[in-house]
Give the backbone structure.
Amino acid sequence: MKSAESRGNWTGLTLLAPSMLFLMATVFVPVVLLMLASFNGPAGFSFSAFDRLTHTPVYAQVLSHSVMLAALAASVAVLAAFPVSVAIARSNGRWQQLLWVGVLLTFWTSFLVKTITWIVILGRSGMVNSVLQSLGLTNEPLELLYTNFSVVTGLVHVLLPLAVLTMLPVMQAMDRRLVPAAATLGARPGVSFFVVYLPLCAPGVTAAWLSTFVSGLGFFITPALLGSPRQTMVAQLIIQQVQEMMDWGLAAALSLVTLVVTLFIYWIYDRMVGLSSLAGEGMRSGDSGQSPLGNRIRKFKMAGFWLLANVSTRIVRLLTGHGQHRMARDGGGNGASLSSCLALMILLAVTVPVVLLVPESFTTSAFIDWPPQGFTLRWYEGLFASPVWTGAFVRSLGVGVLASLISAAVGIPAAFAFAQQKVPMRSLLLGMILAPLILPRIVVALGLFYVLSRLGLVGSSIALAVGHAALGLPYVVITVTATLKSYDRRLDAAASILGATLWTRLRMVTLPIIMPGILSAFIFSFVTSFDDLTLSLFVSGGLFTTLPKQMWDDALLKVSPSLAAVSVLLFGAVLLLMVASWLIRARLSRMRVVQTA
Amino acid sequence: MSLSFPRTMTHSATAMNSRTDTPPKPLASMQGTPKLVVSGISKRFGPTFALQESTLDIAQGEFVTLLGPSGSGKTTLLMMIAGLLSPTSGDIWIDGEKATHQQPYQRDIGMMFQSYALFPHMTVFENIAFPLKMKGYSKERIQAAVVDVLNQVKLPHAINRFPSELSGGQQQRIALARSIVHRPSVVLMDEPLAALDKSLRSHMQFEIRQLQQELGMTVLYVTHDQEEAMTMSDRICLMNDARIEQVSPPRELYFEPRSIFAATFLGESNCLSGTLESHQDGIGVVRINGQDRLCGKIVGELVPGARCQLLFRPEAVQLAPAGDSSSTSTNALSGHVLVNTMVGAFSRSRVALDDGTEVISVGLTSRHAAQQNGAVVVRFSPMDTLIFGGEK
């Protein structure tokens, strides 16, 4: 008995070993070294970096401003993501597919493309201003760009799909009968929403806020392109210290502070909700009621939800007179389609702006003013003729493929361990796998750059691919684990009894069945690499830039129609990728049906 | 018209407009006003009917089961009574109040779901207190009622547990407690025992039935398990093909089915095709294979010369050695035994008649009785034989 159990542990740990070693080398050790570097003075150990940090008010200002902007953007993104997720979880068939496509399209569209879009819309001679002026509503162009408003708008656009992807699993795992059950027990819609639906969604909603807040905190693209110096965020400061001031000590100290803020917020979250819900492990149904303190917290929370429910019921009663509801057709079917429409509108609001880049890419003007003028293909011709752009594209492609191959090779065994084996200290190890996703990316990237620069590997495509593989690893593990959980392990037993060895079994039974999961894992990590700027900013250099790096350098100089053309090409590529993956999935699942039939 | 009256005036409005606002008189003769009346209700999804116009009423304290194969419309009917689905036509009255256009939370009902649907983030106490809280009861009254109902379902110690800490059977009891604690006019149960194992299920069947009789609850219960329906119900509402086939007490449904479907869905029936030759006082003579004449009770209207089906239960069949002509008052056919099987207390014999049709005979297993083998005479009383019109 005992030996079998410990052997189970060992199988799990062996499968996890590659990913753990990989993350040690690419994330944990570099970040720790970077943290130590913040105490590196000219004469050994010193607090001089922190001294400068605390004695220059601008740093504290930037930090607090970053936290505020990230918190605001995360809150708006979560508020907008909530109706979208509810609609996806509750609808079915075509509606669900349509909404889901909207979310994925936004998620996979490049950060830079999303940001450039808002320059076109909000700029002094952008779409909003030109429409307002032509309607005679304003004489002067409004200052929309380079404000808190434009930065938060850009951040929300980027964070919204992430929020949906984080909160949706919790909503999908919920028993669909609970809300009808509450209704048969006499609960008005307000009560069943606030007392039944919302408390059960709460872990997903808070997890969404947390992950959007942390990734927002590490952003520099949006504030740099859409903000003025007053909207400078901490990641920009870190980059500035490294690239312009060559001040590693201060950059490391700033990273340390960012990391501490992040970990502090995770700690609060873990106390209140439990970190496991971040990995989509589902809700802990009420086990916080075990300890007297936990019980009191839970009672307090429930009392809050009841208060909301009672207030909402009162308000509805005030608005409708006697609180008599008219009968909705099909038991609330009306409400469901209303929430679907709201979700669709929110998704259109984040998808349509990107489409506006299409006419801009054909403008004959040298500027991207609204409305675009004339029609020319010269921006596209210019791109294809330029060795810088084509070189960057080829390099991004190569790095992306290599990165996703590495993260698949390292991550798939880990997924097998989490889905099928007994793993000791499961939540800790899962948290470590997720580290590249849940730590601010700027810190991870800087740590890796710090180590690579010591090793003289800066500018190497392979080093860049290895770094990107680390960033893509969490997606591979999450996606493949989820697929493996629905895999019927009796098939393994059947294959073994029929004479298959371990490898034959994997090759002929397991892998073909989980192929759709592996495919989407591959796409996730490819897109992560292809779209990454944070790491590329440091690691790629000189002539060997990646596509996002080239776009970034261009955008810092001037947002030109040729950038719009690149954006349109990238957006088109994402569309193609989605169609392709959908077709391949459809084919794979049809094959599966044939096999089981 | 009366629609403009506030809801609180329904009763006075009833007197003024009795044509639309009172339930139609119950069809079956029952004492008092029925607790639940469903009149001419139907549900259509696009061109297909999930339920054709159906009418049913349930008396105070009655236990009625909706029984039928999947897709027969029983869940659709239940969902419309609960208000979770709105009907295409027809009306629903709950305890004399028209509920057709009421929201679920305005209806005086309790419902038990197949998946239990207990709120996972609430304790057992909070779950059961939920409907009482919705009614605005005082804290003391809620506390007392919850303790009371937990005693009734024999789980008083579970009061502060979470649903996830209870076994399936215990969760079932809590779901039961939650659906009856507020003393609703009607308790709806949607296959509540389907997920339990066999022995626990028969135990719960007994307990639900006992509690229902003790408290005088009015229950509408959905199941596809005929044994469950027979055990628990005062009346069974048999459903097939999106409509109600027959509403009868279990015995009547078994012995006097009004359709071939009812006769074959509940228990087993042997079925022979033939032509009606003559009939008198409800007794018909059917000729099968052009030679044998068999008698039975005619169900419905039939004219001589019509194609018809002869149905009789396996337990009504007796096998006698070939050539035995001791009794001429029974139906008799000759055939030969294909196989005998002992199924514990019962033994089954499959007999092939001379024309190749198979007939099944079931009898109590006996250590002494000789098994019939080879050529036999199949006998069954005309009293146990029913004649239905139409093809199989």
Observations:
- Chain B touches chain A through 38 residues (CB under 8 Å).
- The CA atoms of residues 323 and 377 of chain B lie 7 Å apart.
